Records
---
Amino acid sequence: METKKTTRKAVSKTATKKTGKTPAKKNAAKQLKDLFEDSLKDIYWAEKALVKALPKMHKNATDKKLKMAIEQHLNETEIHVKRLEECFAALGKKAQAKKCDAMQGLLDEGKSIMEETEAGAVRDAGIVAAAQKVEHYEIATYGSLAAYAKVLKEKICLKNLLATLNEEKKCDELLTKIADTAINSKAK
Ligand SMILES: [Fe+2]
Ligand SMILES: [Fe+2]
């Protein structure tokens, strides 16, 4: 018996290696709605982590316009958290956060950039870069979530997700403008 079991296991492992396909976990999402809800939990965690991280970026920034942009986006981020809570409510689900490893990585990188730069124009340039990476991640996430909400005909979710997506894009554009007009040439 024992030999049979081992052989079967070995065969299935070889099959996985051959196809390159990742075997799904037991509780893996089966439908788009499951993937939608899982992704909402991820970005809910990410937005809440940002509410904690942005004040630190604000403290470390020196450029007036950059400080203002971070402060404004912190206010918006608090609204992003609330909009997600409305999405969960619209789906009849309890708001639940699931650790987003990607956002944790981006925030860790932001922390190292601050440690590895002298306070002033150079650190400001680093903060802009770190913040833009976060915004791009959010833009990609909200873009996908809005597309799912559209297909799933979740109107309240779609409205909220698009409103946030728009604010993330505007924040990204503002950061580009601030970097181009002031910070990067000063950091040079
Ligand atoms: Fe956000
Ligand atoms: Fe954002």
---
Amino acid sequence: MLTGEDTLSHSLLSSSINIGLLSPDEVIKAAAAALEEQNAPLNAVEGFIRQILGWREYMRAVYLSEMPGYEQVNVLKHNRDLPDFFWDGETKMTCVAESLRPVIETAHNHHIQRLMVLGNFANLFEISPQQTADWFNEMYIDAYDWVVLPNVLGMALHADGGLLSTSLGELYP
Ligand SMILES: Cc1cc2nc3c(=O)[nH]c(=O)nc-3n(C[C@H](O)[C@H](O)[C@H](O)COP(=O)(O)OP(=O)(O)OC[C@H]3O[C@@H](n4cnc5c(N)ncnc54)[C@H](O)[C@@H]3O)c2cc1C
């Protein structure tokens, strides 16, 4: 994360893939071709392909296998309201403000801001997972229920008791 650097080396392709303008297959083939043409290093191409072929498909699979019901998970019983500053970015917490600003301005921020700053803050502050997921659904250009719920409830908030990530205890009832 760097203050004022909103995109870093990210592709900004998620909205185009999710809306169907690009297929995951053609994006993966283009990345593999870049490797062969020596326009991109192996580690970058491997990581990028793994995110689309691995994480994206896995999120979809979790949604398909767990819905309906998954939208209500809250094993940690977090019930505080989403703070108002999620809507205007007005907070003295610089990391949080710098993660909210791009979303408010452009409907996008990158994975680290979503997971490690906003998700972690929501968990520590014990914000309702459902209010948090609603906010992600409303604010992001690449948001759809199938991708928001597993990422927010499972990956970021552990509200499913570890169903999506490593299970540390009882799964949600
Ligand atoms: C709390 C939280 C909410 C998220 N909400 C969304 C969302 O609403 N829509 C969305 O598409 N992604 C979501 N993600 C996953 C990821 O953050 C975005 O796909 C990524 O930031 C999109 O930007 P990019 O295309 O520039 O990413 P890049 O890093 O340049 O590209 C990686 C590509 O891999 C895919 N990808 C990687 N990780 C994931 C993942 N966990 N789930 C699904 N696809 C993935 C995406 O298609 C993405 O375009 C969320 C992650 C978290 C932690």
